[in-house]
Write a structure and sequence with these properties.
The complex is a heterodimer of chains A (about 300) and B (about 350).
Chain A lengths: L15 H23 L14 H8 L8 E4 L4 H8 L2 H8 L17 E2 L2 E3 L3 H17 L6 E6 L6 H12 L4 E7 L2 E2 L2 E2 L8 H6 L4 E6 L3 H18 L3 E6 L15 H8 L3 H6 L4 H24 L6
Chain B lengths: L5 H15 L3 E5 L16 H4 L4 E3 L4 H13 L3 E5 L10 H8 L2 H4 L9 E6 L14 H4 L6 E3 L7 H10 L4 E6 H5 L9 E2 L2 E5 L7 E4 L8 E6 L3 H15 L3 E6 L1 E3 L4 H10 L2 E8 L4 H12 L9 E5 L8 H7 L3 H13 L3
Parallel strand pairs in B: 1-2, 1-3, 3-4, 4-6, 5-6, 10-11, 10-13, 13-14
Antiparallel strand pairs in B: 5-12, 7-8, 8-9, 9-11
Classes of the chains: A alpha/beta (about 300), B alpha/beta (about 350).
Chain lengths: ~300, ~350
């Protein structure tokens, strides 16, 4: 089954400049995190979103942070920044500072801020998101609940229980599958049988699938998906085939360097950046660096949590 | 006091909650009328409140998370798990979500859900439908486990659980459903004096002090209470040995004060539970009492529990496996005779 969607429903709520700037900031934030790790200024773990930025930015461009809900996973920084724009709170959290968004208790993968949540267990987040969508439906809030999962989550049984529940109960739930083709180090073909999209179609859920790093394409498709959920109150399952350039976490990368290099040719920042005038792009990049410097300074100045 | 069957008392408490709070929603398997749940606890609810009683597919692993999501967004979900054995399916949600959200998210959220589920054997349901698994929950920080008995205020306990901002696992006992609620009347249940502690989920302390000084304490909860009371009565009548019985309602956090007070009077403690022995409720109580009241004890704490194994289906085998009146009386007698 395919969604019968009117292309006119697409209402990208952000300009290309804005989309690019958001992606650029997420990219540089994540690169900075890895540098801070190397410099010994961070401990624990982090799962960077480098290469996947167009997905978070494109989907979340359609969400209302006052009303809609986002539930993310271990690789949540991009979603968090796109939804809340709270870079200082995130960096302070990852750095274990008391001013972190969860006071340093959650760390990189356990975030909560307003209508944003994330948790670090793949099978956990879809059921909770389903419950959130159910509550929002019963409250008639009009909220769209979006849960971001990856190809790794396709191995969790609760996903299929919840696709059944979301369809059965007509819940306003958007499931975004970011298939980056690796679950930690395990390639897709060693972990996933059958068809990714057909999994949801079997439950009678409307679906779409993209294979692109073009933020404008993703934004357009996400707009149709969000509109579907908002207008019909029923779920949608959006598969975004993507790729992460960085390791799963830190230094645990055994992928073919040629494969990564080929993928980098389609870097979402390059694709979007090419459409901007050089001076516009340079201005956005400079503003990004300026903000990042302030963010790092603010987080580093904050007191350590505990002790 | 009311003499109503416990299942009716719990059902009426649910009705009262639905009448008084519009944020209460109940979900579970086979909870709709006319069936009204496998143990008939939800009977009549869906007819009156069709939009607030949700029958679910057999998807326990997710349902715990669904209830958590509802609670995060301001509802007061009551999740009925048909058999307590099936909480095993929900442990990821219980451990990595329900128990963690509040503290992990720095008190920005609460998860005010109630999971109601029947535990216990003695009905011949066999190994996967007869267990007392509440002990598995005691190692999960961030949740509450409440297991009242037929002598506790079941109505009050369930209402308190729903009004609690913390996640509460409300353990019901299968045999208790069919038995009459036996509330203390003028401070007595039958011939035994009964004192109720303060707090949200009060404990009950029974004593035969009218007859003689007690030389041991039995601490128990839930479906083991009638067995403990029967053992206490038998010890009085047949051996002229007196003991106190403390029936806890709140297992997590563990309400220890009435136990310590009783042990200070009696000098010996037997724990009694229907679950298996190893790493059980009794083990935790014993450890704490020995840490806090070593000087009050004449002898090591004794644990009475089920043998570490399955709950067999055949009634004779089940009776052999589960702790009974005779096991409890023997343990108390041994302690009562112990000298400092």
């Amino acid at each position: 089954m395919h969604a019968d969607l009117d292309a006119n429903l697409t209402r990208p709520s952000a300009s290309l400049e804005e989309l690019y700037a958001r992606m650029r900031f997420i990219r540089r934030f994540e690169e900075t995190l890895l540098e801070l790790f190397s410099a010994g200024k961070l401990v624990g773990t982090t799962h960077t979103y480098i290469g996947q930025e167009a997905n978070a930015v494109g989907v979340i461009a359609h969400l209302d942070r006052e009303r809609d809900v986002v539930f993310s996973n271990h690789r949540c920084h991009g979603h968090y920044l796109a939804f809340t724009d709270d870079a200082v709170g995130l960096l302070a959290e990852v750095m274990g500072r008391s001013t972190g968004v969860c006071g340093g208790k959650g760390g990189s993968q356990h975030l909560c801020n307003g209508n944003f949540y994330s948790n670090g267990v793949q099978g956990s987040i879809v059921p909770v998101s389903t419950g959130i969508a159910l509550a929002e439906k019963e409250k008639a809030s009009g909220a769209v609940t979006t849960v971001f999962i990856g190809d790794g989550t396709l191995g969790q049984g609760t996903l299929y229980e919840c696709l059944n529940l979301a369809s059965l109960w007509r819940l306003p739930l958007l499931v975004v599958v970011e298939n980056n083709h690796y679950a930690q180090t395990t390639p897709f073909h060693l972990a996933v049988a059958g068809d990714v999209r057909a999994r949801a179609e079997a439950f009678g859920i409307a679906t779409d699938e993209l294979d692109t790093t073009d933020v404008e394409e993703i934004t357009a498709a996400a707009g149709r998906a969000v509109e579907h959920v908002r207008e019909t109150g029923s779920p949608f399952y959006l598969v975004l085939n993507t790729y992460r350039f960085s390791p799963h976490s830190k230094g645990d990368d055994h992928r073919d360097p040629d494969e990564i290099a080929t993928r980098r040719e389609r870097d979402p920042l390059l694709v979007a950046g090419e459409r901007l005038a050089d001076d516009v792009r340079a201005g956005l990049d400079a503003a990004c660096e300026e903000r990042l410097t302030e963010v790092v300074a603010a987080a580093e100045a904050a007191p350590e949590a505990g002790g | 006091m009311s003499g109503k069957r416990c299942v009716t008392v719990v059902n009426e408490a649910l009705v009262e909650l639905f009448e008084t709070r519009d944020d209460v929603v109940l979900l579970g398997e086979d909870v709709l009328d006319p069936y009204g749940g496998a143990f008939k606890v939800t009977q009549g609810l869906s007819e009156r409140w069709p939009d607030r009683v949700l029958t679910t597919p057999i998807s326990e692993a997710s349902l715990f998370g669904v209830a958590a999501g509802m609670a995060l967004r301001g509802q007061r979900p009551i999740l009925e798990i048909m058999f307590g054995d099936f909480i095993a399916l929900g442990f990821d949600q219980i451990v990595n979500g329900i128990g963690k959200f509040r503290e992990m998210f720095d008190e920005q959220v609460s998860v005010p859900l109630v999971v109601r589920t029947p535990m216990g054997g003695r009905r011949g349901y066999g190994p996967t439908h007869s267990q007392s698994l509440e002990k598995l929950l005691l190692g999960v920080p961030g949740i509450c486990v409440v297991a009242p008995s037929e002598c506790h205020d079941l109505r009050g306990a369930l209402i308190a659980a729903v009004e609690d901002d913390r996640p509460v696992f409300f353990i019901e006992n299968k045999l208790m459903y069919g038995r009459p609620q036996r509330r203390p009347v003028n401070g007595y249940v039958d011939e035994l004096r009964c004192v109720e502690s303060e707090g949200r989920y009060p404990a009950l302390t029974f004593s035969g002090n009218d007859f003689g000084p007690a030389s041991a304490t039995i601490v128990t909860y839930g479906g083991m209470l009638p067995i403990a009371l029967e053992a206490a009565t038998e010890l009085i009548l047949e051996h002229e040995q007196f003991c106190e019985v403390v029936a806890l309602s709140s297992l997590l956090p563990l309400e220890l004060e009435p136990v310590l007070e009783s042990v200070a009077r009696t000098g010996a403690l037997v724990t009694a539970e229907e679950g298996t022995l190893t790493a059980g409720v009794g083990a935790e109580i014993a450890a704490r009492v020995q840490e806090l009241a070593w000087d009050d004890l004449r002898a090591p704490v004794r644990r009475v529990a089920a043998r570490d194994g399955i709950v067999p289906a055949a009634r004779g085998l089940e009776d052999e496996m589960l702790p009974g009146v005779r096991d409890l009386a023997a343990a108390v007698s041994a302690l009562a005779e112990a000298r400092a």
